[in-house]
């Protein structure tokens, strides 16, 4: 389902964005991103994992298990990492996530429904429908393709636009 793919793509983007911030990348406007804490360069993934899961340890080969990684789709993950690393673009990261979109909280709920399809995940999706201006009597996939009240396009397309806007803001 598209909700799974969209959330996975967003998570991978945020993960890659985090790594790029630690290698003195430049935004589209030409400004260089730098980290105040240089020690992270040796193991940026380990830093991110242990920040959110202090008890996590690498395997015997020094690698990390993918399940130990933080929830990259959650805005708190990137904003907290930016703060802890004193990233020069930390204010821009906070601003990018301040658009007020429900995509960051609601898309993971829809993703969980499509990945697990159980009574609890269905109930969670139905509870979000009214908050997004779509009818609660619809099936979850119908909710995503429904056009919310006062919106010109489907809920899913609105969310994709919000993610694109956030990504573009992060990369400026």
Write the layout of secondary structure elements.
Layout: H1 2-21, H2 44-52, H3 75-84, H4 90-96, H5 103-116, H6 119-129, H7 140-145, H8 155-171
Oligomer: single chain
Which regions are unreliable across 5 or more consecutive residues at pLDDT < 50?
A: none
Number of strands: 0
Q: How far is it from the N-terminal to the C-terminal residue, by CA?
A: 30 Å
- Average pLDDT confidence is 93
Number of individual domains: 2
Element order: H for helix, E for strand: HHHHHHHH
**From the alpha-carbon coordinates, what is the Rg to the nearest angstrom?**
18 Å
| Helix residue percentage | 40-55%
State the shape.
globular
User: Structural class per helix/strand content?
Assistant: mainly alpha
* Share in β-strands: under 5%
Count of DSSP-assigned helices: 8
Sheet with most strands: none
Structure, briefly:
With 172 residues, the protein is an all-alpha fold. It has 8 helices and no strands.
Can you characterise this structure?
With 172 residues, the chain is mostly helical. The protein folds into two domains: 2-100, no CATH class; 103-167, no CATH class. It is built from eight helices and no strands. The chain has helices at residues 2-21, 44-52, 75-84, 90-96, 103-116, 119-129, 140-145, 155-171. It is globular. The two termini are 30 Å apart. The relative contact order is 0.14.
